Structures are given as C-alpha cells and as structure tokens.
Amino acid sequence: MSLNAYEVFVAIAERGSFAAAAYQLSLSPSAVSHALASFEQELGFALFMRNRSGVRLTAGGEALLPTVREVLQCNDKLKQQASKLLGLESGTVRIGAFSSVSVMWLPNIIRTFTELYPNIQVVIEQGGYDDVAEWILKSQVDLGFITLPAAPGLDVTPLYADPLLCITPPGFEPRSKAYMTVAELAEHNVVLQGEDYGKETQQLLMSHKISVKSSARAIDDAAIIAIVESGLGVSVMPRLAMLNYRSSVQAFPFYPAESRAIVLASLSQEGLAPAAKAMHKHIADSIAAWTKREGGDQS
What we know:
The chain is an alpha/beta fold and 299 residues long. Among the domains are: 1-64, Orthogonal Bundle (Arc Repressor Mutant, subunit A), CATH 1.10.10; 162-258, D-Maltodextrin-Binding Protein, domain 2 (3-Layer(aba) Sandwich). The protein has helices at 3-15, 18-25, 29-43, 59-85, 99-104, 106-116, 129-137, 199-207, 221-229, 239-242, 274-294, and strands at residues 48-51, 54-57, 91-97, 120-126, 143-147, 155-168, 192-193, 217-218, 235-238, 250-253, 259-266. The strands form three sheets. Strands 3, 4, 5, 6, 9, 10 and 11 form a seven-stranded mixed β-sheet that branches. The radius of gyration is 22 Å and the shape is globular.
C-alpha cells in the first residue's frame, strides 16, 4: 500500500468525486481510478459506492478514513522534522475557522506567516463552530478557531474574550439608554442565527434562562445585520463580527458584560508537526498583538 493511494483515497473522500480529486492532486482521472482500484484490491473490499451524483464512502471506507489521515499526517510530520534538521521549514498547515476570524484575523496572520516561512503552504477551511471542532477531531485540519466550551479531546489555547453586543435598528433606545440587559431581549423580536453559527446567543439565553420570540433566522453575519437594520428586530453579535461591516445599526454592550471565549484548538500541541507548531505560536502572538492594539481583554 502506497502513500500515493492514501492521498487519492482521502482526496476522493473530501472532494466527493474522482475528477475533483484528480484536479487537487494534479493527476489524470485515470491515474486516480487506477490508484484507488489497486488500493481496494489490496484491502479486499470497496471503499466507495459510485452513483450518478458522485461517490460516497462505504462503511469500510468510513472506518478506514481516520487512520489513513493519521498516516498521511505522520508522513508529513516526518518530512517536516527532516527539513528542520537541515535548517529548512516546509510542509502544510491546515486551519479551520469560523466567519469572523476568517475575515478579521486570518488575512494578516497568513500574510505575515508566509513572509517568515515562504516554503510552508497554508490551507484554510471555513465553517461553523461545530464543523471546525469535528475537522480537528477527524484530523482534517491541524489547528482550528473555536469557542468555549470545547469538545472533549481538544487541547485549547485561550486567544480573546470577544464582547457580545446587542445590535438594534437606528433610533432604538434601551431602558438604560447606554446598555442592554439580557432580560430586556425577551421584550423584543430577536433575529437568530442557525444553531451551529449562533451558539453564543443560545448559550447567553440558556445561562440566563431567557426565552425570546423570533420571526427571522439567518446564517451569515451580513444577513443578520441587514435584517436588524431594516427594523425587523434586534440581535446578539460578537464585536469581532461587527468590525468588518458598515451599517446604520446601533450596538449596545450588555450589562453585566457578556463575551464569547475564542480559543485555538488542536488534538495535541505537543503532537503538532513543526510547521503547525510554528503557526500555532504565530497565531497566539498575532492575536495578542491585535488585542493590545484594539485595547481589548485577552481571555
């Protein structure tokens, strides 16, 4: 069994088709088909079920995928350690992140990291909080930005306590005029996000045992802001998510203050490959510097 076959297997599983896997690996479709066929013949069972819409993993393929990913990660780690002994830094770092981190932090982090380590490739995957945690646990990414509480089995490094704000239509006045309370949310229509994308709002309401009415639900931050701006309700947004948007919505802090804890997660900091370790340190240093510039509080 060859590492080439392992790469083909993982690429097909992640991309959902032979053509997409061939494009990712810079191979011909026939080479991908041949590598997979040889792998399946050696194993003695099929890894995929083919249909008109693409391919999907068999039960055997599902069971084997995590182990094959681990083998590829170990091989990459071996090559990186060998390169390091030669005074070089090389390899690939895969990072999972949710929207506001992808917009506000990652562009500068990747640019400055690439200046330091031009031979290291950085791959970004964007999704919801639960998506990122699952990618880490399945070894699809090396590092991921998530919020607390973290899933069991993850090693986390605190990065930033991101204040939660109540955003309202123009002209809205809370009772205090300067801040909102969580209890006051129950008096208004609250625009909510999809479950995996608005976890901080759900945690906020649950921790205060507040039930709210909602006639609107959206996934992305821009849609939430637009709905609130049109006067259809209020919403809860992290400060980081608000920094990239210009709108006429008002933003009020909560009293007492509320925040989401953003952390950098991995399976194990000690077990990271050299390239991922370098990126881990660079992210932590970059966010600490950003927090100092912004005058915020680090978690």
